[in-house]
Amino acid sequence: MTELCDLSAVELRRQIGTKEVSPVELLDACMTRIEAVNPALNAVVALDMDRARDEAKIAEKAVLAGEDLGPLHGLPIGIKDLTATAGLRTTYGSRIYENNVPEADEQIVADIRDAGGIVLAKTNTPEFGAGANTRNAVYGATGNPFGPDLICGGSSGGSAVALATGMVPLATGSDFGGSLRTPAGFCGVVGFRPSPGTVPDDQRLVTLSPLPVDGPMGRSVADAALLMSALVGQDPLDPFSRSLDPALFDAPLALDLSNLRVAISEDLGCAPVDERIRTTFRARMGKISGFFAECGTRDPELGPVHEVFEILRAVNFIAAHKDRVEKHRDILGPNVLENTERGMKYTAADLAWAGVEQGKLYRRFVDMFDDIDILICPACSVSPFPHAQWSVGEIDGVKMETYMRWLAITYGVTMTLHPVAVIPCGVDERGLPFGIQIVGRYQGDAELLAIAHALETAMAGDKDLARPVPDLAKLRT
After folding, report:
1. Is residue 26 exposed (0-12), middle (13-18) or buried (19+ Cβ within 10 Å)?
2. What angle do CA 433, 434, 437 make, to 5 degrees?
3. Over the stretch 113-163, which tens digit does the pLDDT of each residue have?
4. Which residues are catalytically annotated?
5. Distance in angstroms (rounded) separating the CA atoms of residues 1 and 385
6. Rounded to two decimals, what is the model's pTM?
7. How far is CA 111 from each of CA 80, 141, 172, 474, rounded to the nearest angstrom?
8. Pick the CATH number of 4-476 from 2.40.50.140, 3.90.1300.10, 1.10.10.10, 1.10.3720.10
9. Which residues of 97-127 are buried (b: 16+ CB within 10 A; e: fewer)?
């Protein structure tokens, strides 16, 4: 039997508005689920129960009084532990900040509260979001809901796991090299990496870098779009932000897939991808291709994307962590140390070269969309592996040159700056969640969500394509 916390965010918000569901009742259902399954997974790492309960009661009174309700009214939200929350412990997954309790919300949290959302929990993340394995020295590792000893992805792993298991109906994520998309793929949920500036970021350390973005996560595209509607807008503190009508994201518009021209790529022409994942991807595309007007194999021209990514990412690591490495080396994890120290070896000439190459790559990718509407590729290069292993050392016998190389299937798209949605697409050969990335036109975020929603709907009736659901009874025990 479906419990209240398993309903979609869109349906829960509808039922709150029609007084069929009380925000207090929903909060209680989420808390019961957290208590039941979080001990096996460690996705939720901090709770704001007293404030959340007070806000749920206020939300209930507002409904009964007939007041105007925000798009997220009464919905409990999980916030990734890289984002400051007033009065609620925010550690960034680092021992440096293990006792940090911010006095103020970051803007994205303030926007969620303004839209009626109730901040219930912080979700686990790797230290400072470095890497795709959600484990840190403060809280430990977060397990995959389809196998608690397996990796859930990162760095938005706690959010993905909390969503997949019904602990919260919506959660925030962030993405640089795939931090939002890899966990969505590994856990069978939806993650959306927007075009830079679609979700304003007033805390981006390197203000003129468009590569790191915040984005929504949900169990469906419609749910992610609902959260998106509360996050878009213009903020003078983010030079990439732009004025958008939130109504564009209220609910994905109806869209006819049969008009679309689709490019399919197993590996973006450059990413290492396990042969078993390739086999699953081919099988899924064999079923999906008939939905579209045109569907053919085509790899984008990403050029020296690996080197470009490593250099441009290093700029952010040096800006954020150089002082920390000098002062707190003894309590920092290996990913932060490795990235920062490797970054210090690059020169100004390296940075200039990477900037030029990224510009060329971006323009080639824009040109590619002259004769396609979307690009589809796998969300992850491998199947989930034990989280005791920091990262992937080799794929099909080929050694990975850096601990990030196995994530090229996602960071390759990052370098294009285009929006990308990850949606579940059945399971792989091991019976674990399999996801696909759908890449749309630059700044075509609302259109891409509509396409993803239409494809998700078309796949829902096929057991080989539908979203997998974890065994909650097993997790409870």
Report:
1. buried
2. 135
3. 999 999 999 999 999 999 999 999 999 999 999 999 999 999 999 999 999
4. 80, 155, 179
5. 31
6. 0.98
7. 15, 29, 12, 36
8. 3.90.1300.10
9. beeeebeebbbbbebbbebbbbbbbbbbbbb
